[in-house]
Design brief:
- By secondary structure, this protein is α+β, with helices and mostly antiparallel strands.
- The chain is built from 11 helices and 8 strands.
- A 5-stranded antiparallel beta sheet has the order 1-7-2-5-8.
- The radius of gyration is 20 Å and the shape is globular.
């Protein structure tokens, strides 16, 4: 998993996620067990979620499986729109912004703590064997109609077990999750062929390096050096792929991280500014407003509403 450069940022717990997703409305019953595992049908809650959700980190791993409808969600600087028969996987501690889910969306949402797998993987993290759980992994997995039945059977069994009183069987939940991930591991993720294109590959690597080192490295040349290419070549690849410069993409990552810091920490604007630059904090305020249309303090107040 990526270096924990954000170890001082308190990610959202499952209980805090309820307020993040639904505001002050008590939509789900948050129990002690839900910290470890939770699953629900999307159609039961999608109309109550306050989209778009602002950038955030959480303590748990989560995935969405759409049986119908569409959704748009980000993983750091990568944005994905996906639809029927498609999973979206998000590792714990990775920034996500959930922009949209269509009103007709059906399927499942599930989150779980890595602790659930500790007994089975006491030395090696469970996610190492599954590329879609990696920080730099492609988060989308689309299943064909033949596998759809198997996937739905597993998800429905997870839901049935979860709803058992008084406490679900942890071993059963772990076994079904592991079976699901093993089934999906064999599927070729979409976009693999296209990503072999040089400009796409280099841009993707640059995005992943930004997510890992944005607090330590603040120059495009630093990242080009890590990739053993020139800054000009890096800039050309990013420009070809995204229509923006490598510096502009770095600015996007800084804004994303700053939004999480403003929402999830008590750090002052000055303290946040110095995490990304040694310049005057007022310069950071101007930079943030130019990118978002509001000052950091205004964003913090709005995010708290």
């Amino acid at each position: 998993m990526a270096e924990l450069h954000f170890r001082n940022i308190m990610p959202l717990s499952p209980k805090e996620l309820q307020q993040h997703h639904f505001g002050n409305e008590e939509v789900m019953s948050v129990t002690d067990f839900q910290r470890l595992f939770h699953i629900n049908r999307l159609e039961d809650l999608v109309s109550k979620i306050n989209f778009p959700l602002p950038p955030h980190r959480k303590t748990v791993f989560d995935f969405i499986f759409l049986t119908e409808g569409t959704s748009s969600r980000s993983k750091d600087l990568h944005r994905f729109t996906f639809g029927r028969n498609t999973f979206f996987f998000l590792p714990a501690l990775q920034i996500s912004t959930h922009e949209y889910m269509s009103p007709d969306a059906t399927g499942f949402f599930c989150h779980f703590d890595a602790e659930l797998f500790n007994a089975l993987f006491p030395k090696t993290p469970f996610y190492e064997d599954f590329p879609f759980w990696h920080f730099s992994g492609h988060p989308l997995v689309t299943v064909n109609e033949d596998l759809r039945g198997t996937v739905l059977h597993i998800l429905n069994r997870l839901l049935t077990e979860y709803e058992k009183a008084p406490v679900p069987n942890r071993a059963v939940l772990m076994a079904y999750l592991f079976t699901l991930f093993t089934e999906l591991k064999t599927i070729q993720p979409p976009g693999t062929t296209a990503s072999q294109h040089s400009a796409l590959r280099i841009t993707g690597k640059y995005k992943n390096l930004l997510s890992r080192h944005i607090y330590q490295l603040h120059k495009v040349t630093d990242y080009a050096c890590l990739m053993a290419i020139t800054a000009d070549h890096l800039n050309k690849c990013v420009k070809t792929t995204l229509g923006k410069t490598a510096q502009e993409l770095m600015a996007d990552m800084i804004i994303l991280e700053a939004k999480v810091l403003l929402k999830q920490t008590p750090l002052s604007v000055s303290e946040i500014a110095f995490k990304f630059s040694e310049t005057n904090p007022s310069d950071f305020t101007r930079f943030f407003k130019a990118k978002t249309g509001m000052t950091p303090k205004e964003y913090r107040r709005e995010a708290a509403v």
